[in-house]
Automatic annotation (TrEMBL):
Region called Disordered, residue ranges: 45-76, 371-436
SUPFAM superfamilies: Galactose-binding domain-like
Compositional bias per record (Pro residues), positions renumbered to this chain: 395-420
Compositionally skewed regions (Gly residues) per UniProt: 63-73
Name of the protein in its database record: F5/8 type C domain-containing protein
F5/8 type C domain sequence ranges: 60-213
Keyword annotations: Signal
InterPro entries hit by this protein: FA58C, Galactose-bd-like_sf, Glyco_hydro_92
Gene3D superfamilies according to UniProt: Galactose-binding domain-like, GH92 mannosidase domain
A Pfam family this chain is assigned to: Glyco_hydro_92
Keyword Transmembrane helix: no
Length: 436
């Protein structure tokens, strides 16, 4: 399984519940269940098990589903289903999808002074306002001249707004631009024809809005299948861990004290034994650059037929941290999570403090074991990083040259002759001739 999330404002305790015969389920069940399965898995891809519930809490308090990027009345950026661009910096993770993720900390970058990006909505929207957000650095890369156009078919474009000589005075600054009249289109295109002098163009976000009411905030924390997270410098944007889908959990902490939401996701019938393994991957997102790591307060729970829950049975993960939303969130700041005790790379014990280029290029899984005290990990003779060649081979150290002969000397005031080649030290330029 895989999940990614966005929790805004303050820390929220959330749990994604995989139910297994829990009371009070939302669907009718047969009188006699089939024999329990031995395993269950889903990556939320087409043809795989889909959630039995979406945004359905079993119990909750102080939480709603108002996670949206917000800021513009009637914003429809969350309805973007596709993005195209003239170019992007794929290797650096500065891709076109970052323009629609609502996160100023990510950006779209192209190695040209001009560029364009097109956005598809799930349905036509009467846009009245749009906004652009400057990126994190290099103001000379900001757009200066551009046009915003709309299209019904994605081929024929109508100019909706033009700007010339515009300027962002701060990093991560969002500027709003009204249209002369509402423009109802399904496709929108931003065409930047000039920046502020650099040979690179960048932009953090483009947001579209209708100017109307956003409608009521969803009353419950959201758990919906989505396209996957963005904003990672090392991962493909809008994709899951093993495909192109993931489950998004998102919401706001609206209470003054404790808040939580236990959302049901799957209704499964799996026998759990002493050797049963529960595994899942989570990508916590930092909404608007927040650093309280609210989205780490999450775990996947199991509800058993006897009415108990895994989180209530003092279960711990492989590193000894409580398998509960609060326990998983607290683990990041725990005194037992300070020192590296060991590392496995793709299941193999790893003692070096560096990784080969091939692993960075092809990808892999790192599993750190942490502890409360300093350890000997990384202090071995061969643990220090070494220079490598393109083929991941440690280069042969150069042979140590014999000590050079003394530099020739001359009486004061007379030119010193240039030393012969035999006097050149290995790796050190020959001294210039001079007078003494």
């Amino acid at each position: 399984m895989q999940w990614f999330g966005r929790l805004r404002t303050v820390a929220i305790t959330a749990i994604l519940v995989m139910t297994a015969g829990a009371p009070g389920v939302a669907v009718a069940r047969p009188a006699h269940l089939p024999p329990p399965a031995r395993a269950f898995a889903s990556s939320f891809e087409a043809g795989q098990p889909a959630p039995d519930w979406t945004s359905t809490p079993e119990r909750a308090s102080g939480v709603d589903g108002g996670y949206a990027t917000g800021g513009l009345p009637g914003e429809v950026t969350d309805r973007v289903t596709g993005v195209r661009a003239s170019a992007e910096n794929t290797a650096g993770g500065e891709v076109k999808e970052n323009l629609a993720d609502g996160e100023p900390s990510t950006k779209w970058l192209t190695f040209a002074a001009t560029g364009w990006a097109e956005f598809d909505l799930d349905a036509p929207a009467a846009v009245t306002t749009y906004a652009l957000t400057s990126a994190n650095d290099a103001a000379e890369r900001d757009p200066a001249d551009w046009t915003l156009s709309g299209s019904a078919d994605g081929s024929t474009w109508t100019v909706l707004d033009s700007r010339s000589g515009d300027d962002f005075t701060e990093r991560f600054q969002t500027k709003t631009y009204p249209l002369a009249a509402p423009a109802e289109y399904r496709h929108f295109r931003l065409d930047v024809t000039k920046n502020h002098g650099a040979d690179i163009l960048q932009l953090a976000d483009l947001r579209l809005a209708t100017g109307g009411s956003d409608g009521p905030v969803p009353p419950d924390m959201l758990t919906v299948v989505d396209r996957g997270p963005s904003g990672s410098p090392t991962a493909k944007a809008r994709a899951g861990f093993t495909g192109v889908r993931a489950l998004r959990y998102a919401g706001r902490h609206t209470a003054s004290g404790r808040a939580y939401s236990y959302n049901k996701v799957f209704d499964v019938n799996v026998r759990v034994g002493a050797r049963t393994r529960l595994a899942y991957r989570i990508f916590p997102q930092l909404a608007d650059g927040e650093r309280d790591y609210a989205a780490t307060n999450v775990s996947v729970d199991l509800a058993f037929t006897d009415g108990t829950y895994l989180s209530g049975l003092a279960a711990v993960d492989r590193y000894g941290f409580p398998l509960s939303p609060r326990g998983q969130g607290a683990a990041r700041n725990s005194a037992g999570n300070v020192y590296v005790q060991g590392l496995k790379v793709d299941g193999r014990t790893w003692t070096s403090t560096s990784l080969p280029h091939s692993l960075l290029a092809e990808g892999g899984t790192l599993e750190f074991a942490m502890g409360p005290r300093p350890s000997a990990w990384g202090s071995g003779k061969n643990a220090a990083p070494v220079s490598i060649t393109r083929d991941d081979r440690v280069p042969t150290p150069p042979m140590r040259s014999p000590a050079p002969a003394p530099w020739p000397t001359t009486p004061p005031g007379r030119p010193r002759p240039c030393p012969a080649p035999s006097h050149c030290r290995a790796g050190v330029p020959r001294r210039p001739c001079s007078t003494r």
